[in-house]
Design goal:
40% of the residues lie in helices and 15% in strands. The chain is of the alpha/beta class and 273 residues long.
């Protein structure tokens, strides 16, 4: 298996339309999205067929993790042809300069409302390193906002390992400007890290417009949504407080990616909220 950090490095700088707010008058989750990293091997082989397949399952939103040599115009055409929206994309590190400008230009052309950095290198995970990234994220967020796009950061569990007397996740939240930087909360990784999403919704309301919907078994393994022990209905009941607008199913290494996507979608489709 290719680790996520290596996969993103291979993709290089890659680059979501702002979606509807949490539906206040329905008891069903709508729309349901998927992070295409779940299907990355299929995407490498057949971007067009993979997007058609997720649309056939019933997904209406996708989050990209690379465009696989398709130009922004082609990506937008494929989305429109399949009745899909792409509210967000995972990108590389937002280094200032022409590379970041090109990422944002591509995101704007495709119609993304969010660009998301999903990883901080292990060598940089010190208190000073996290502070430097907070400054970098603020600068990246300012450039993104100028194009009508929101910058966000996606967590793993390493942000919940205490440095000194502070959690890195808290540092990033506290030292980034809420008008420039938002967060994509990975519900598996925050749970794996020993913390409750509701705690963070209460402390940082409105900072989590995106979530990764990933389930965890009793032994801590990642499983298809609905096959584990995370109480998603409990979490989504606080969506308005959190600011959630987009819900992306993800499984990092499913045995059968398309079947995993089907099972997870079916569970969320039928979830009582």
């Amino acid at each position: 298996m290719v680790p996520r950090r290596d996969f993103l490095a291979w993709l290089g700088a890659t680059a979501v339309v702002c979606g509807r707010r949490w539906p206040e008058t329905t008891d069903r989750l709508d729309p349901v999205g998927i992070q295409l990293y779940t299907l990355r091997r299929r995407m490498q082989e057949d971007v067009e067929g993979t997007l058609a397949a997720v649309a056939e399952i019933g997904y209406r939103e996708v989050e990209f993790a690379g465009y696989f040599d398709r130009p922004p115009k082609r990506i937008r055409e494929l989305l429109e042809a399949n009745g899909l929206r792409a509210p967000a994309a995972h990108i590389g590190m937002p280094e200032p300069g022409d590379g970041w400008d090109r990422v944002l230009d591509a995101a704007a052309e495709i119609g993304h409302g969010y660009v998301v950095t999903p990883w901080i290198p292990e060598s940089q995970r010190t208190a000073d390193g996290y502070r430097r990234f907070a400054e970098l994220f603020n600068r990246a967020g300012m450039a993104a906002r100028a194009r009508g796009i929101t910058f966000a950061y996606h967590n793993h569990d390493f942000e919940f390992v205490t440095l000194g007397d502070r959690l890195p996740f808290d540092l990033l939240l506290d030292e980034t400007d809420p008008t420039l930087v938002q967060f994509e909360l990975d519900l598996f990784w925050i749970t794996k890290g020993g913390h409750d999403p509701l705690e963070y919704f209460g402390r940082y309301p409105g900072r989590f417009p995106l979530v990764h919907v990933k389930d965890m078994s009793a032994d801590g393994a990642m499983v298809d949504v609905g096959q584990g022990e995370i109480d998603f209905a409990r979490i989504f009941a606080r969506a308005a407080q959190a600011g959630i607008r987009h819900y992306f199913v993800e499984h990092d290494n499913p045995a059968d990616p398309l079947e995993s996507a089907r099972r997870s979608h079916a569970h969320l489709r039928d979830l009582d909220l």
